[in-house]
## 1
Amino acid sequence: MLTADKVLDRYYLDIRCMLVEIAATLDRHDRALDDSSATDGRDARLDKVYDALAMLAQTGGTPDRSERLLNMFSDLD
Amino acid sequence: MQIIQPHYHAIARTAQDYERMAMSGVVAVAEPAFWAGFDREYPETFIDYFKQISEFEPTRAADYGIRHFCWVAVNPKEAENPALSHEVLKKMPEFFTKPTVLGVGEIGFHKTTKNEEEIFEAQVELAIKHNQLILIHTPHLQDKVRGTTRTLEVLRHMNFDPERVWIDHVEEHTIRGPLEEGYWVGFTLYPITKCTPKRAVDMLEIYGRERIIINSSADWGPSDPFTLQECIMDYRARGNSLQDAIEVFHNNPCRFLGQNPKFDIKPIRVEQEGVEQPVGSAT
């Protein structure tokens, strides 16, 4: 297993890239909303995305974010 | 579809790249001079490198029916050594007369130092003196904004036609300045550290396609020339026509590079587009 520093050394740019990709995808969606009057933009899938981002934004969490995130995107009922 | 790969470091790639590019529609590549992964010590090493990309690489590409063009320069990273750089600059004009050399590039900033700036200015002046096209690299990651800003500041004090200058590797946070000042800009599709195919298409949607060149900058690091085809696929999937794609991925490189008459591939138009299903609409 890598040390915490080595994990960042190895994966920091991956994280940056994935965050930019998420930002660009949300921008793409919002620009499409600006161009269309067909919907009010509240799509349940988008709510899940923002809930997931809020969960990821919490510092000091337990190292089970992937599991929690996948559960957020699961039909558990 | 015919495609031009306008920024491609062939010497770092295998012939299999050429073969697959040819099979996927690539008709020409242009190879800027770049950093070899280590700092060279001798001017002669650069000269041999320039010979390799201006004499040997065109023959390797021709085996697969691909036209190969190139640029000569001291790259931004090695420009940190001014004494070496000036020696190389003295020999560069010999290469401007070669039949496939299109101009001076890639030049510019790496860490935006005084030494880099001295050599950047000297290479722009050399290009102007010999009426060469100019290809400018912009720095990576956290250095990009500062380097791009300084690039524009330096260029404002020099006398040339901005339409003969291509500022490469722009991203969402650096595209506006170069476009507004009349330069061509390049989006470089590169895993992790530059632009992704989808983000490139986003920028095309926002800024249009005028004075924009898309490339893969495939080199000796983690990189993939076929991100260009991936970008074309996403561009078509968003409803753009075959001719639209040709304008971006073939004709725009022709328009910029064709300002040097040695680049004699002309823009093309499809005579008639068939009725096609958009990409991804099979179900």
Note: The mean pLDDT of chain A is 91.
## 2
Amino acid sequence: MAQVKFTPNLKRFFPDLCPCEIEAATVAEIVAAVDKRWRGLGDYIIDEQGALRKHVNIFVGDELLRDKQTLTDRVSADTRIFIVQALSGG
Amino acid sequence: MHNKLLVGTRKGLLIMGRDGGDWQVESAHFEAIPVVYAFRDPRTDTLWVSLDHGHWGGKLHRSRDLGATWEEVEAPKYYEGAACPPDFSIAAKTNYIWLIEPGGVDEPNRLYVGTDPGGLFVSDDGGDSFQLVETLWHHPSNTHWFGAGRDHPGTVAIQVDPRNSRHLTIGISVGGVYVSRDGGESWAARNRGLYADYLPDPHHEHGHDPHIILASPSNPDVLWQQNHCGIFRSDDSGQQWRDISDKNGGPAGFGFALTVDDQDERVAWVAPAVSAEYRVPVERALVICRTEDGGETWRDLRAGLPQQHCYDLVFRHALDKAGDTLAFGTTAGNFYVSDDRGDNWRCLTNNLAVVYSVRFM
């Protein structure tokens, strides 16, 4: 199962957020699964059209997510997924 | 509650109050998060807050215990496949939640939300869920909507007629004024008398830029509009607008903020800046202007406001009035109050973040 970790900044809105393991074929399926476990979390990561939010990054292994529109990047059993915020603002 | 203020800033929400003495910050909420708009729904005693997370999207929160606890509700969402006006080449999603407005007193579960990229949303379950008002979103004039200051148009003004909750007046920036007489089932543009100096035809039926629209509570047929191209007033619910910008050389003209008197339909206040291209206070001096004759004349109110080297602007929802008290916050984090209808001001603090909204509770 893919191992999923989150930026600690999301714990402000989901206090019981923690690393988890998810059976999934794509990153989109992972987002759907974590949204099911932490209701509303998906809306923090993707918009209503399913695209990655502008200032959110997802690492698939060591690489940045490629398909930011529909999150079809493939995930295998030992993939590490890291959901983080982009560096921006002031 | 004339003795409580909700102040939305770039770094959180402040609840200010005065209990005998002067105004004090009583509590801070959503710290470090931009608070676009905050208001109290008097029908249900519920506080509503619109947040603009830089990273995580626009969110809505409400409090049923005046800020002691908050709950997030699902933010409005555009339907799958929705695309942004005017050319529909970009997927529509809720980029920004401009404001939340209550429905009429006879419909306590109805709320309206105005968003970027231009969609008006409605809830009939107290805000548990919102639906896009597709009749307005698909109005045939939407090819004349576009972004100004932001990438996409925004629904920035929502007025519900207190005499008839099905009579709605909406301002889209840029798009214009739309009125519904049937609770949002159908819409008509109401831009006659406005002009738009950035259009090839400044008197075109569509494509106008209302920054804010307010109805006079004592006579809701009277509408006031701080527009990109001046200040306008209508005596007939927007059928005809009249330019009431100061014709005598005074500063009342370009600006964002507006508030109106609840007793006298001839009285309103604006917070001018030089122009769209030159967004600084006129002669770098902060001024609020008041008319007492329906816009025929304007009086500058400067006592207690900085009159040199001042670069404060007042955003569209950052000026409000309750009784004889007015309050406004600025882009430079300054906050001012007057207890005599603007004749004299005092600064409460110089140290806030950018102020986006000010509303008496």
Note: The two ends of chain A are 37 Å apart (CA to CA).
## 3
Amino acid sequence: MSLRSPLGRVRGLGSAKDGTGHWWAQRLTALALIPLTVWFCVAVVSLSGADHAAVAAWAGSPLVAGLLILLIAATFYHAYLGVQVVIEDYVHSEMFKIAGLLLAKAAAIVLALTGILSVLLLLFR
Amino acid sequence: MSSSNRPLSPHMQVYRPQITSMLSILHRITGVALAVGTLLLVYWLAAAASGPAAFADAQALIGSIIGRLLLFGWTFALFYHLCNGIRHLFWDAGYGFEIETVSRTGWLVLAAGLALTVISWVLGYTMMGGA
């Protein structure tokens, strides 16, 4: 016996085969962001008022650059997942919703890439 | 339209503000604010990668009154979202659903977010020698 409604069956609507992927990715990135964020906040506070040489030297170490890249990747993945849900909840026009989702995804990718490339430039300068 | 006769759920205004619902929407608001705040993070890193002149511009912008106000707001948003996010992860693991606990952890994350914000700024200004 199928649990699907007759209307759902006739329209061909059903599982998008996505399952708990979104929920799980949001939690995993959240978990990764706890230590990364705490580390970054401590680092930024201790860099208060630092000049370019000090910041470049800090970001130029492989460990720091690696952690910064992980922070950027997890941040933008997590941010996109969150913004996606907010758009899906509040934007009811199908056209604006899809446009908003695409724009948010594009912004996340461009910003993440800019951040990661900046870190790599500081590492290899 | 026949759908206009359907029952509506009560409007937001009939609900008394409660710590649970207020913190829930604050989690979402701070999350969106932080998504916007990533612009500053990327700008700061890109400026550092560009060289001393661009980095000095970025520091001047962040150090201006408006820059500091925005950064202070983002600091609170970050710490609140971090603390409340940990609260959410405990819920996901199945802990802390009793009404009293939910209230208590709510006030706790709010206080922790504020305290961490103030501590970070005090330490930051101390690092700069009180500038």
Note: Chain B touches chain A at residues 28, 31-32, 34-35, 38-39, 41-42, 45-46, 48-49, 51-52, 55-56, 78-79, 82, 85-86, 88-89, 92, 120, 123-125, 127-129, 131 (CB under 8 Å).
